[in-house]
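Please check the following.

. . .
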Amino acid sequence: MRPVNKGNCLIDQNGHQIIFSHYSDAKGYLIQRLGHYCSYCERSIRASLAVEHIQPQSRQQDLGKTWSNLLLACVNCNSTKKDTDVNSTNIGDYLWPDTDNTYRAMTYYPNGPIHPNPRMPGHLQQKAQNSINLFGLNKTPANNSKATDERWIGRIDVWGIAEESKADLKDNDTPQMRRQIVKTAQANGHFSIWMTVFHDDPDMLSRLIDAFPGTCRNCFDPSNGYMPVKRPGGQC
């Protein structure tokens, strides 16, 4: 999951906090700050991207229109999570893209799966797994015969595109090629896959971090090749 910073609550031109009449009114602001990407599976979604409640509105109605409780989600991630009872007591059992360095906590592989980062402490691996399970990011035909979504196929496809892009860059390393690769990444989404494939190219990592709106720069150390680091104030 891409770690994001959606910013503080919205303020109008008179300095007053914007109060949404309906949570869906936040969608445009969230897209403006985070881009057209699912906050969980990282797909690029131009249609059917929904406002998602971290703590479900069905259980926490007082948070239904609260900016800090809102992110963006695709149909698959939203429907998988449904109204799972995430609340103030157990919210810390999961890792969240707007408060933790979720990229640091998860590892991506060429054949599609997402797993907890084995280099993380055991309790953080468990929280990463909880988040993976919550949104069904581990669904594949191999472990869920009833899985109807194809998010895992999308990850395989984008991994292949990223690898081809890296090979093209090796043959023709120009500023123009680097800019084109970034545009390709923006169009296809899956920030974490691009970051994983280009892990040994600090310039590309910096470009990718800048290219995806709202990516939390504090989660990456520019003095150490943009290696992921613990997010200030986060669990990881």
The longest helix spans residues 151-171.
